[in-house]
Prior knowledge:
Blueprint: H1 15-27, H2 42-47, E1 73-79, H3 83-87, H4 96-101, H5 105-116, E2 124-127, H6 138-153, E3 158-159, H7 193-197, H8 200-203, E4 209-212, E5 219-225, E6 228-235, H9 241-252, E7 259-263, E8 267-269, E9 276-278, H10 280-290, E10 296-301, E11 306-313, E12 319-326, E13 338-344, E14 349-355, E15 374-375, E16 382-385, H11 388-391, H12 409-418, E17 444-449, E18 464-465, E19 474-476, E20 493-496, E21 508-511, E22 524-526, E23 542-550, H13 556-559, E24 562-567, E25 587-591, E26 596-601, E27 612-618, E28 624-632, E29 637-642, E30 645-646, E31 666-668, E32 671-673, E33 676-678, E34 683-691
Parallel strand pairs: 1-2, 2-3, 6-7, 7-10, 10-12
Antiparallel strand pairs: 1-13, 4-5, 5-6, 8-9, 11-12, 13-14, 14-15, 14-16, 17-34, 18-19, 19-22, 20-21, 21-34, 22-31, 23-28, 23-34, 24-25, 24-31, 25-26, 26-27, 28-29, 29-30, 32-33
Amino acid sequence: MSTFDDETGLPAPTRRNFLRGGLAAALIPGAGLLTACGGDDDDDDSAAGGGESGGETPQPQPEPGPDATQGSRFALAVLPDTQFYARYATLAESSQYSRKFGSEPYMAQTYWIAANAAALNIPFVTHLGDVVDQAGKPDQWKVADQAMRVLETAKVPYSVLAGNHDVLRSLEYVDASSQASGTEAQRVLADEPYLQWFNPARAKRMSTFRGRDASGFHEYHVFEAEGQQFMVLSLSWRISDDGIAWARRVIQENPGLPVILVNHQLLNIDRDGVSPLETAYGNMLWERLIRDNDQIFMTLNGHHHGAAHQTRVNDFGNKVEIMVVDYQMAYQGGNGLMRLYEFDLTHNQIHVLSFSPWVVQKPRDTLTQFDQAVLKTANEQFTIEMDFAARFSGFNKQFKPGAQLRGSLVEAASAMILAGYTEPEVEVARAPADPEDYPKVASTVAHWRFTGGAAGQAVAAGQVIEDRAGQNPLRRAALNAEPGVRTAQLEDVRWSDDKHFLSAAPGSVQFANTDKNAQRLSYFLTDAAAPLNAMDFAATGYTVEAFVKIDKNWRSDLHAWMNIMTRDGRRDAVPGFSGGDGESPPLLFAVSSLREIQWEVVTPQAGVRAPQASWSGEIMADSWVHIAVVADPAAKESIMYIEGAPALRNSGNATGLAPVSAAMPWVVGAGSWDGERCDGFFGSIGEIRIAAEPLPSQQWLTARRG
C-alpha cells in the first residue's frame, strides 16, 4: 500500500521521484516558456576592441534564428486496459503485485502522470476502458478508485469509459441486429457497478467535464491546450442507437472543436501483431458517427491485444487517424505500459511514446528481459504527420499554434523514465550445437521428441514416439476409434523439420485440419500400463516443459480450448473434487479462446479442493514458444513460464497432479469431455518433458549441456 502525503493526498514521493522531477525541470526549463532571448552585452562589446584602443570596428552579429527544436506542444496521456492491474492488486488474488514487486502498476501510472503533468504539459488523461477485470468484484473497483483519485487530487482531469469487463453482461456486436441487445439501453442501470464507482457526480469533479448521456455510460470533455480547445468524446462498451444520436448532437453543439473519439472497441490487430484489422463494430461506428463528422480527426481504443494504427479518409477527403493499444496480455498483465501522444502544433506532427513508469520501480532482482521501460518498435513509437490548421479548416479556420514554445515532450518523458534505470542484461540464448545439447536431468520421468519421419510425411497410426526416459512411450491413436472423433484422416498428423530455435530435437509433428465442429482431431496416448499414468508428484513437485506453435490459421470457433496435453478421466471422479466442469479431465494443458495457455489441475492433497490454474497472456499464432510449469512443494506454488518469463496469473498450491486411476493414459494433442475425445490441437509440438522435481531454468530444455 502506498504511503500518502498528508497535504497533497498523493502517494509520498520517493527520493527517486524527486530526482526525476528535477530532471524534468532541467529538460523543460521553467516547465513552460522556452522562447529564445537575444541581446547584446555592452561590456563584452567594449572589451572586444575599438574606440581609443584602435582595434577593428566590431561587426554587428546576426540575430539568432528560430530554434527548430522548439514548438507549441502539449501531450495527451492514455491509460489502456487496466483490468489485470485492478484484479491482481486485490487480496483475493494474493496481492500479487505488491507481494512480488513492492508496488502496483495502476498506482504507478497515475502517480507518474500527476507528478509530471505540469512539466510535460499534459492537460488531460483518457482511459480506454476495462477499468477492472470482473465487474462484480468490489475490491477490484476499490483499486481502480484509489488509482484514479490520484489524478483527481492532483487536479489532472480525465475521461473514463466502461469496457466489456466493466459491465455485468457483455455481448459482442455482430451486425445491425445486435443493437437490440447488449447495449447500454438494455442494461439495468441501477445494478451496474461502473455507474456506482464512476458516476456522473464523480465526472463533474473534472474541470473539463461537459456532460453524459441519459444512461450515464457515455461522456464528453473539453480541454484547453496551447490556446485551443479539444473535445474528448468517450463512448462505453456497445453504444445504443440513442447513444449514437447523443454523440452526434454533442458534436453538432460544439461545431468548432476538433474531436478525439475514445471507445473501448473499434480497431483490431491482425495475426502478425502489428497490422490493423477492421471490426464489424468499428465499421458501424465509422458509418454512423465518424465518416460524416469531419471534427473527428483521431480515435483511440483498447480491447484488442497489442498495438496498431490505421488511417482512413472521411467524406470530406480528410484523414482520420485510428489507433488501438492494449497491453493486458503482455508480461505482468501489461507491465504498467501506457502512452503519451505529443501534439506538436508548430511542426504539424503527433509523436507517440509507449512506456512504463512501473518497470523502473521494480526491485532489480525481479527484472527480466521483458522489462522494457520504453518500447521502441515501429508500432509503439512513431510519428503521424498532420497539418492541424489545414485538417481543421473545414470547421475551425482560427486554429493555430500557441505562443509558448517547448522542447520535445516525448523525448523529455523518455529521458525522465530512463534516468537512473538500466535495462536488465539478458543472456543471449544459444542455439543447440547438436541433438544432445541440452541438460540431462535424472528426475525425468517422460521425455518425448516428436521426430521419426521425413518432413511432410503422415505419421502412421500406431506410430511409437520414444520416451527418452525409457518407460512411457506414446503411440498415435487409431483413426476414429473413440467416441467424439468422426472425420480424422491419416494426413492430419505430419512429420516436420520445423522447431523452436532453442530445442535440441531435430523436428516436430504438425497437427493439421483440426476442426472441433466436424469432430476431426488426432492425438497420441501413453500405454494403459505406463507408470506415468499413476504418478501424482505430490511429494516431489514437477516441471513440465513443451515447445509448441499455434497454427497461423487458428480460429476461435474451430480451435478454442484445444489441448496440448491432458490425462484422461473425469475430474469429478477425484475424491474431494470441488468446482465446475466435472466432466473435464483432471489436468488441462490447453489454449483458451483468447490463445492463452491454460494449466489447470486437480491436486492430490487430501480433503476438498478446487482446480488450481495458471494462465499466460495471449500467444501469437505461427510463433514457437517454450512453456515451462514448475511446481515447488516447498514453496507451495506452481509458476508458468513463457519464453522464460513468469506468467502473472499463477495458482497457489498446485504442486501435485491427481490421477483418476492408474489405468487412465496421458494424451498429447487432444482432451476429453464426459468420456468423449475432443478439443484437438491445431499447430505443432516439438518435444515435451516431465521431471519429478522443480527445475531451475539452467536445467530446462532451452539451456545447453554443462
